Amino acid sequence: MHQTMxxxxxxxxxxxxxxxxVATPLDAIVQLETPELVSRVVLTGSFATNRELATFLTDxxxxxxxxxxx
Length: 70
Description:
By secondary structure, the chain is an alpha/beta fold. The chain has 2 helices and 4 strands, in the order ββαβαβ.
């Protein structure tokens, strides 16, 4: 199952259908370590402007689509 993961400190974005919401970059990495679980990551809020995080995720998980929103 391929899901979208949203990285956001806003907990109102709880899991809905094929969407997983995590609150920290470390939580995102834990989810990404499960093979073939997540195919897309959306960084929101302050995470969306964190270029180092986006670059790290892109380099470390080349098969996962990384988006910055907001």
